[in-house]
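Consider the subject:
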Amino acid sequence: MKINTILVDDEPKALASLEHKIKRFCKEIKVVKTFQNPQNAISYLKNNEVDLVFLDVAMPEMNGFEMLQQLDRIAFEIIFATGFDEYAIEAIQHCAIGYLVKPIDNDELIDTVGKALDNIEEKNAKYRNQQLLDNFRITRFQDRKVIIPTQEGLEFLELNHIIRCEGVDGYTKIFIKDRKPILSSQNIGHFVKLFEGKDFFQVHKSHMVNLNYISKYLKEGYVIVGTQQIPVSRYRRNEFLDQIKG
């Protein structure tokens, strides 16, 4: 079965290049339309069903996020194409939505399309896309929600409610304020990368903590988070102490 797809990018060369790469490397994808004008893409999407949309983030008339906000229903999968835009990538990553950084690498295209096809089969695009739009409206990182894949499905968690993460046999146990922990199918490295540079710090190869929940640091090399004593690796201690001292 072919995946009906549209491409939206205001740059004709970028649009032609992406279409060529898709036809060459992604045989499951059928490009049914391409658009340089996002308003035309909106009109098409309001009257036609598609499975996948490749969407440029930075367009002069309206950006990709603003285009999505014009739609009443977003049940299709999205792959964003963007130059390096830290804020846009951050908003996208937190919702487990695919993105490609221009110029688009062939292997990254193949990998991202493969993940998009898996998501299409799981039929959960509507929830992730709505969360993306909600996140993009929020300016404070700590107030955003993150989508956590678990064995049961997807969990939508407020970042400031996440107390700590613990790596367990390739999975991650996530401890949450005022509720039981959950187990994510992603390894702890995924969350370290996702939360890097914010209020979270990886104190140990298997432990990352929200600095706002630390009540005490012990000279022996441990932090107290809630009722738990978490080890701080020797080679991370100086960086950690610098971080908490501000």
User: Anything to note?
Assistant: The longest strand covers residues 29-35. The domain at 144-245 is CATH 2.40.50.1020 (OB fold (Dihydrolipoamide Acetyltransferase, E2P)). The chain has two domains: 3-137, 144-245. The mean pLDDT is 84.
